[in-house]
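User: Last request for today: this protein with S-adenosylmethionine, please.
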Amino acid sequence: MRCLSAPYTFSPYVRGLLEELSIDIDGFVKPILNRRTYVRINTLKVSLGRFFEESGLALRQTALPYAFEYLGSNKVADEEASMEKTSVKKIGKTMEYFMGWIHPQAFSSMLPPAAFNLRLPCCGSAEEMRILDIAAAPGSKTSQLAQLTFNRVPIVAVDKRIDRLSLLVSNLDRLGVTSVAVYRGDARVFSSSQLFTHVLADVPCSSLGSSVYAWKKTNRHRIRDMARVQRRIILSAFDALKPGGELIYSTCTITPEENEAVVDHLLQNRPEAKLLKIELPVSFERGLSEYESSAHVARIYPWHVNSEAFFIAKITKES
Ligand SMILES: C[S@@+](CC[C@H](N)C(=O)[O-])C[C@H]1O[C@@H](n2cnc3c(N)ncnc32)[C@H](O)[C@@H]1O
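Assistant: Here's the final one, the structure of the complex with S-adenosylmethionine:
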């Protein structure tokens, strides 16, 4: 039986939020404290067939074809290993990691890129497509997008922080990503009018769906400040989108101020913005009913995915 591996405390704000959202505390907390380790097999460098012929890692399939839970090494399905906090570090020392065959990434973090419709034309070129990842570092989702588009679609990856951008660059290098241009910039004022067919805004957030530290420290002032940044980023991300394109807005938090309210802000300020139905290979809940966007956004809680919480909205621009 799994036990809670560390003590945790909630700030008064977070406790109040969990009560307000009627969240089952055990179901929320356990998958985060006993965090499972997931990897994405990087099909830019290795086919799934060759990987399983040659790799010594024991992996368990998830609902995404390239996403696996890491169980241990040497083909021993070591249940304990997946519970060890050090397992991500262990993965970082494997040959598969060095060769760029795998990338450690929370399973739920793979869902926002998977929510795009990225089907490339079966033949001919993908010239029409251009992707913007507007808050991209350290590049887990950027490299996933490059993988899903076979390094054939230009991707612009933007982030404000140079230290995080250098991590992004080394990840892209290790993973054999060649389709990404990296740009240091502020997503709140990123001006690239209607250039992109797909925009990912995986915005900075309070991380209440993933961070035990945030449970202890977060107060309403922090949420107000985060939401202010997010409202600006979502408008700038939407303005970069071509008519008919797709914008994914995502966070790894649960506050309505950073999620539904930000999407409502976009709907109220950009009449061409329309929510699209989200299709995901996991179960999830709809948004909170008091918001305009509620019916078409996805609240993914830890108990749905045995991973971090995520919020995802998918939006198009009508011409
Ligand atoms: C949730 S993380 C992105 C994670 C990334 N999408 C991934 O999957 O690896 C949010 C990122 O936004 C960046 N950021 C924060 N404020 C920003 C701003 N005003 N403009 C651009 N990036 C910003 C942070 O440096 C951070 O790297």
